[in-house]
């Protein structure tokens, strides 16, 4: 009986080839899209969850309460990890980490001896507990001794092979390193396996936190009010997190009574997805995009299922006699329902096989768009996800048609006296409306994404990002910086050049509240961004002065000067600020200029008070402004000059525009993904509309012939046939417009600087949806209108 049912199902699918092909195409595209999104979502949700104690690792966060705003930050005092772990019994282990993502320069690392090789790599600093808190697998060395001494270092498997050609017998070998103008020698104490792509922080070398705090490195003052590293804790099993947060909230005030900073912990596994805070309140993060695309994947699959439901129910008349005969011969409704579900599940399985082929073809491009390294692996999560999607698709597609077709009375079927209720017709129309409602929302969302990203890319940032690049002075070059800068400025094509502590657009800018001025309210605490620069940097960046002057070596006292941005001057309430004295960390500084506001942070954030001060020794990232059109020749000359000053070192540079674009990498990737997903949603919807219009035209063939004989024109017939479908699409678009508008407003709310929504753009997208729908149905309508009525009426 099962073999017979299978044979009948396959025969039925073959008999309705056009419907089968359209359903197969729609379902396979829907399943492929959903599975790709599933792989991406699964990867996002698994970031940082591979550690042994992942569920007990927490990150300490700071709430900095200033007069102008409350800032949530990850930086903590250098002394926090070592001290709090001794004073809080809930803590099992703690570690301080200065992650690679917050270090603006790459490390230069080289071996010793005749075959010296220099590599520039991403690195971090961490204390001796790092590998005991984070269970990265070690190929050599132990977690207890990997970072025990100031001169110890751990390197990745790949880095060990690059440096020595092997991972064997590497422990105990020495490396030369440099970072900006700091350098030294370290001994390899451990080799860790290459980090998986689900590790949020990627690094190839790990130095000790003792080295980071060493006075000979950054000349830093180690104190409770100097924040730099991230602090991570492993809490004991059964710890009450709410109670612990309450306990540590005022911890810093016990160390420094004037501190206005409070502490709390968040799960380490949440840090990647939940990372946006506004005024001290968690407002989301990447999880919003994960949710968005999970919903999009589900809706695309739903659109494909709606095609199946509509086509199956619309063609019910072709299968009613078969069902009537079966019911007359004693077939129970349950058996007919199961047969219908078996048919849809079989089609879903065929679609899944085709979807795997589509995934194999498009996965490389999908990885390029998302920046991931996803692969088709038959592991348990993927198999479970695949089976779930097949079952959901088959059952969702087949349950309504199976119940619908099996519900007819056999007597009415065989006498040909069936009447289709208005509710059934409205249900079918409602599904079409829902399809195009989703398609229209997707297209409108893509347009808003595109416009906002375009706005961001073309907004005046207050400095020149297009013809400015930067590179780091390190190695031998750091000992001869002045001579190098003098030669650099002589190169043809170099307009201006000057050092900064780091690129404005890289993370890690310092902040301070340690600024006082005449007339300041003693209860006021304003957070200033501290930007360190060298002479010539303002000109290289193209910063615009609105009063006063820029820094110049012609003024020896500029080392004690300061320049503010417009926002800072307004926040301080200063009028005619040039020449006035302020106190920075207790030291007097003279205001020599005010620059026009510039975006040193993302356009998600409002420009905050900031100042620029001269830091000649620490400014080792060189900003170079070059003449438009001379990029290649100028870079070639600079590379040659760099090699003459630092032989063996690679000349690595980045344009500021690349850094600027990287700030909106998530939005750009989401925009591209949304564009493809919207196109697929429209394609699947149009496939269903095309099939429905074809079937409708076929059923009304004789009616069309009669109308033509009675004098109906071809345009009139085309309008008659298409108006029903286009009317449904129009209703869908009218519903989609306000929904998309509200969703766009909510997303744009994540940007402080954003576009104003234009109703004309929404109207244009609505017209485009109607045009696409008309194209989908017009072919069949035009063909039917142009057909010879004699052929359709010859049997009458």
Automatic annotation (TrEMBL):
Compartments where found: Cell membrane
Pfam family, one: MacB_PCD
Start and end residues of each MacB-like periplasmic core domain: 21-250
MF terms (GO), sorted A to Z: transmembrane transporter activity
Membrane topology: Multi-pass membrane protein
A GO-annotated cellular component: plasma membrane
Residue span, ABC3 transporter permease C-terminal domain: 295-408, 677-785
InterPro entries: ABC3_permease_C (IPR003838), MacB_PCD (IPR025857), Macrolide_Exporter_MacB (IPR050250)
Entry keyword Zinc: no
Key words, A-Z: Cell membrane, Membrane, Transmembrane, Transmembrane helix
Transmembrane segments: 20-41, 292-314, 335-362, 382-405, 426-450, 676-697, 725-744, 756-777
Domain of life: Bacteria
Protein name: Transporter permease
Annotated source species: Niabella soli DSM 19437
């Amino acid at each position: 009986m099962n073999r017979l049912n299978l044979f009948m199902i396959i025969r039925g699918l073959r008999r309705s080839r056009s419907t089968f092909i359209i359903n197969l195409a729609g379902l396979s595209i829907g399943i492929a899209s959903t599975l790709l999104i599933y792989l991406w979502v699964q990867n996002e949700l698994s970031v940082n969850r591979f550690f042994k104690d992942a569920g007990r690792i927490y990150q300490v966060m700071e709430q900095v309460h200033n007069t102008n705003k409350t800032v949530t930050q990850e930086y903590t005092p250098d002394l926090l990890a070592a001290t709090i772990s001794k004073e809080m019994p809930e803590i099992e282990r703690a570690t301080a980490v200065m992650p690679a993502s917050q270090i603006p320069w790459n490390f230069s690392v080289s071996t010793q001896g005749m075959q010296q090789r220099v590599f520039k790599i991403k690195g971090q600093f961490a204390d001796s507990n790092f590998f005991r808190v984070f269970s990265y697998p070690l190929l050599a060395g132990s977690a207890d001794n990997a970072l025990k001494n100031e001169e110890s270092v751990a390197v990745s498997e790949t880095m060990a092979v690059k440096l020595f050609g092997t991972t064997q017998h590497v422990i105990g070998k020495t490396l030369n390193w440099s970072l900006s103008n700091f350098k030294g020698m370290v001994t390899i104490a451990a080799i860790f396996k290459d980090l998986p792509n689900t590790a949020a922080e990627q690094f190839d070398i790990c130095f000790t936190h003792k080295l980071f705090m060493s006075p000979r490195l950054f000349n830093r003052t180690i104190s409770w009010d100097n924040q730099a590293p991230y602090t991570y804790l492993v809490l004991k099993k059964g710890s009450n997190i709410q109670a612990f947060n309450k306990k540590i909230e005022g911890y810093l005030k016990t160390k420094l009574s004037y501190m206005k900073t409070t502490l709390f912990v968040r799960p380490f596994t949440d840090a990647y997805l939940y990372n946006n805070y506004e005024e001290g309140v968690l407002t989301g993060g990447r999880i919003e995009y994960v949710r968005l695309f999970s919903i999009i994947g589900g809706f695309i699959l739903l659109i494909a299922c709606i095609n199946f439901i509509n086509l199956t129910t619309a063609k019910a008349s072709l299968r009613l006699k078969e069902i009537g005969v079966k019911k007359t011969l004693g077939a129970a409704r349950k058996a007919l329902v199961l047969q219908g579900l078996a048919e849809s599940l079989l089609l879903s399985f065929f679609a899944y096989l085709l979807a795997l082929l589509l995934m194999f073809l498009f996965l490389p491009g999908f990885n390029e768009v998302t920046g991931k390294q996803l692969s088709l692996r038959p592991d348990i999560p993927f198999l479970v996800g695949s089976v779930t999607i097949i079952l959901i698709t088959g059952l969702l597609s087949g349950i309504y048609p199976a119940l619908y077709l099996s519900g007819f009375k056999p007597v009415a079927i065989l006498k040909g006296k069936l009447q289709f209720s208005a509710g059934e017709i409205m249900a079918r129309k409602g599904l079409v409306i829902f399809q195009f409602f989703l398609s229209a929302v997707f297209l409108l969302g893509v347009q808003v994404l595109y416009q906002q990203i375009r706005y961001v890319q073309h907004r005046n940032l207050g400095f020149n990002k297009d013809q400015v690049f930067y590179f780091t002075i390190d190695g031998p070059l750091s000992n001869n910086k002045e001579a190098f800068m003098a030669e650099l400025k002589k190169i043809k094509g170099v307009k201006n050049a000057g050092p900064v502590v780091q690129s404005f657009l890289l993370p890690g800018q310092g902040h301070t509240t340690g600024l006082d001025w005449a007339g300041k309210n003693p209860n006021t605490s304003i957070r200033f961004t501290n930007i360190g620069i060298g002479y010539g940097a303002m000109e290289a960046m193209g910063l615009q002065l609105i009063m006063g002057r820029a820094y110049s070596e012609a003024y020896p006292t500029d080392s004690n000067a300061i320049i503010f941005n417009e926002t800072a001057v307004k926040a301080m309430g200063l009028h005619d600020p040039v020449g006035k004295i302020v106190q920075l960390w207790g030291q007097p500084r003279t205001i020599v200029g005010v620059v026009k506001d510039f975006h040193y942070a993302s356009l998600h954030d409002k420009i905050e008070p900031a100042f620029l001060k001269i830091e000649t020794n620490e400014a080792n990232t060189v900003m170079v402004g070059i003449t438009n059109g001379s990029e290649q020749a100028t870079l070639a000359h600079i590379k040659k000059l760099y090699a003459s000053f630092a032989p063996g070192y690679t000349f690595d540079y980045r344009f500021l525009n690349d850094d600027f674009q990287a700030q909106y990498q998530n939005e750009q990737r989401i925009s591209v993904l949304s564009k493809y997903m919207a196109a697929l949603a429209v394609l699947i919807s149009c496939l269903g509309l095309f099939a429905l219009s074809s079937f409708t035209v076929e059923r009304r063939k004789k009616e069309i012939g009669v109308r033509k004989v009675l004098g109906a024109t071809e345009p009139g017939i085309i309008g008659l046939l298409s108006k029903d479908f286009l009317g449904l699409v129009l209703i869908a678009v009218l519903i989609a417009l306000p929904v998309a508008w509200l969703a766009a407003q909510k997303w744009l709310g994540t940007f402080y600087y954003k576009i104003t929504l234009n109703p004309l753009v929404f109207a244009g997208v609505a017209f485009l949806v109607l045009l696409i729908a008309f194209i989908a149905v017009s072919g069949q309508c035009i063909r039917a209108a142009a057909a010879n009525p004699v052929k359709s009426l010859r049997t009458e």
